[in-house]
Amino acid sequence: MRTYLVTGGAGFIGSNYIHYMFRKYGDEIRIINVDKLTYAGNLENLKSIESRGNYTFIKADICDSAAIRRIFQENDIDRVVHFAAESHVDRSIKDPEVFVRTNVLGTLVMLNAAKEAWELPDGTFQEGKKFLHVSTDEVYGSLEDENAYFYETTPYDPHSPYSASKASSDMLVKSYMDTYRFPANITNCSNNYGPYQFPEKLIPLIINNALQGKKLPVYGDGKNVRDWLYVEDHAKGIDMVQEKGRLFETYNIGGHNEKQNIQIIHIILDTLQEMLPEGDPRRELVSENLITYVEDRKGHDRRYAIAPDKIKKEIGWYPETRFEEGIRLTIKWFFEHEEWMKNVTSGDYQKYYEEMYHE
């Protein structure tokens, strides 16, 4: 049975990846989920699988080298999928230090622990071991040319403390691949959306606010462009890179769903109106009048767009979910999990963990 160590598995993308892997492989694999349970980590995301015999949760900080080394010593880890990261740009502008600590130092700790566990006396590594570092398209900076795209060869040009910290972690992984021939891959993805996404992010924020008749904040002129990727498509891409990707390579995972932020908001509002049943009082709350333009974010990149040509050609992955379909699936999920949203926005889920872990 192959054992996967997933860092940040209680977060948005990590929890979706764990669900995807169990749907695909069932009892053929074992997953150890390591998460610090910060504001973005929520074990409710994994409630349906927590009792599986081949699933283990360990509360730990990836910057705690002793704790991470112990996990490797006590378990025969075959694959590492490294999601754990601080990822909210606005928070990085207010407090860059925690981003550097988690994203850079935490990645270094993970690399060292895996290297120590997997390295043979002759400096080579045990066959079949692999480390996958999950990163972002934001490391490439901003595209000014509307016909340009991010490729794996695009020079890094990060503009926020968040993207700079992720660029630094990417460079660390690359240095281990180049120096030690450490068995790893890097993936850089576009903006994800879907179930379990923390409501500070654009799409769940707009859904939640619109249903409550609250203002819908839009940075600047609302014309910043992002490439949107349904989270299950991303999970599938990560698995395919682990299974079919060439060692030491970087693969961009993009959704072919470029849209301006203001377009996203209009699509969500229109879709909510379509999906809310007649007689639901929230139909009257959902309105374009809620759209409120606010001062632009500092260093706000204008456009991101990934060309996933390499992963399509080499591995056969492609984004299966059109945005219009994905947003309906996402809204349907939020309709069915209103209690989850209430617990997250109120902070009640964190109080539960504080009691559970006596913090």
Automatic annotation (TrEMBL):
The lineage of its organism: Bacteria, Bacillati, Bacillota, Clostridia, Lachnospirales. It catalyses: dTDP-alpha-D-glucose = dTDP-4-dehydro-6-deoxy-alpha-D-glucose + H2O. Keywords: Lyase, NAD. Its EC number is 4.2.1.46. It holds the Pfam family GDP_Man_Dehyd. InterPro entries: dTDP_Gluc_deHydtase (IPR005888), NAD(P)-bd_dom (IPR016040), NAD(P)-bd_dom_sf (IPR036291). This is dTDP-glucose 4,6-dehydratase. SUPFAM superfamilies: NAD(P)-binding Rossmann-fold domains. GO terms for molecular function: dTDP-glucose 4,6-dehydratase activity. Residues 5-329 form the NAD(P)-binding domain. The keyword Lipid metabolism does not apply. It is an enzyme of class 4 (lyase). One of its GO terms (biological process) is nucleotide-sugar metabolic process. Gene3D superfamilies: NAD(P)-binding Rossmann-like Domain, UDP-galactose 4-epimerase, domain 1. Belongs to the NAD(P)-dependent epimerase/dehydratase family. dTDP-glucose dehydratase subfamily. Its cofactor is NAD(+). The keyword Aminoacyl-tRNA synthetase does not apply.
